[in-house]
Write a structure and sequence with these properties.
alpha/beta; Helicase, Ruva Protein, domain 3; Arc Repressor Mutant, subunit A; 3 domains; five-stranded parallel beta sheet; three-stranded antiparallel beta sheet; 12 strands; 15% strand; binds adenosine-5'-diphosphate; binds magnesium ion
């Protein structure tokens, strides 16, 4: 696995208690009774969906086939990619990240794989497969088609993390990189995590690089300060783009604008704004999402005011 900070075992996976409990039962049931089911993990980006899929695969000792929805964009590629499954001689763990990226046509090719453990080839042959456990991830469950959802018995709902959990993740990640970290520095980093382990780990990795070049072995508050300054992060961990969204809303009549308009003003896509940036702004109460409209909340207005004229 490329991610050096990813927990490899369920015991090391902090938080998401409900998810971890369900996963533990399913692993037991699979080991003891050979009982299998397909999974869908859904929830905000950077909260451990992909990571937990890899943990399940390792725990069950299955052959990992890792795909993303974007690879299953056209039917031809989908047939070619899924055809490869027929050559695998051992039970398979089919991880499909960002599954909402696949097209409807592609999801029809996937359907018999999930429903009947067979591959229906383009020329009409039905080919048997080794037992498959599918693990799909998405930010929004509603973006997957009903036939796919209904084939996945186990639904894992991920949520943003508390600051205590993020503090623990910061400490564990620093130790994985063979650095020590003060409690205060870990709490400081957690405050900038916006509920997402991914943001915490990025900060820890940057702090580790800073420690290396400055010959230090402990992440303390001075190191964190230097890193935040370098990364140009705003209070509570907002990025410049996220602050720009708030500032844009602050200039609109009734502090309100549509998603398309915001995306246009940010030179970004509505999907990117909606999936990557809005969830943390909304969950931190800085904006409210009302249909296609976005409104700056009182908390959002106070946040912008507290920045003053900072760039
Ligand atoms: N519960 C957790 N404990 C420790 N690290 C975590 C946890 N969840 C996620 N991470 C780390 O956060 C980062 C993002 O996780 P990832 O699984 O890619 O999120 P997602 O698939 O939900 O976008 C990875 O570096 C991962 O190792
Ligand atoms: Mg992922």
């Amino acid at each position: 696995m490329a991610d050096p900070l990813a927990p490899c075992w369920l015991e090391d996976f902090i938080g998401q208690k409900n998810v971890v409990d369900i996963v533990r039962w399913e692993i037991e049931a699979a080991r003891k009774a050979g009982r299998r089911g397909h999974f869908i993990a859904h929830g905000p980006t950077g909260t451990g969906k992909t990571t937990i899929g890899h943990i399940i695969c390792m725990d069950l000792n299955l052959v990992l086939v890792s795909l993303t929805g974007a690879q299953l964009e056209n039917t031809r590629d989908t047939y070619a990619i899924l055809h490869r499954l027929t050559r695998i001689q051992e039970p398979i763990f089919l991880q499909l990240d960002e599954a909402d990226g696949m097209t409807r046509a592609a999801s029809q090719v996937l359907h018999p794989v999930l429903a009947e453990n067979v591959f229906d080839s383009e020329d009409g042959r039905r080919l048997p497969l080794q037992p498959i456990t599918a693990f799909l991830t998405t930010n929004y469950l509603s973006q997957l088609s009903e036939p796919i959802i209904s084939r996945c018995r186990i639904q894992l709902q991920f949520d943003l993390y508390s600051e205590e959990e993020l503090t623990q993740i910061a400490i564990n990640s620093a130790h994985r990189l063979t650095l020590s970290i003060t409690q205060q520095a870990a709490e400081f980093i957690a405050e900038y995590g916006l509920g997402e382990p991914r943001r915490v780990n990025h900060l820890i990795e940057t702090a580790a690089t800073y420690c290396k070049v400055t010959d230090q072995t402990c992440i303390n508050v001075t190191v964190v300060d230097a890193v935040l300054e370098k990364l140009k992060l705003y209070p509570r961990g907002l990025t410049k783009l996220e602050v720009d969204i708030l500032r844009f809303l602050a200039m609109q009549p009734k502090f309100r604008a549509g998603l398309q308009t915001i995306a246009g003003a940010m030179f970004s896509s509505p999907k990117d704004i909606h999936q990557r940036h809005e969830p943390s702004l909304a969950r931190n109460g800085l904006i409210s999402i009302q249909g296609t409209g976005r409104v700056l909340t009182e908390k959002g207005i106070a946040y912008i005011e507290s920045l003053g004229n900072a760039l």
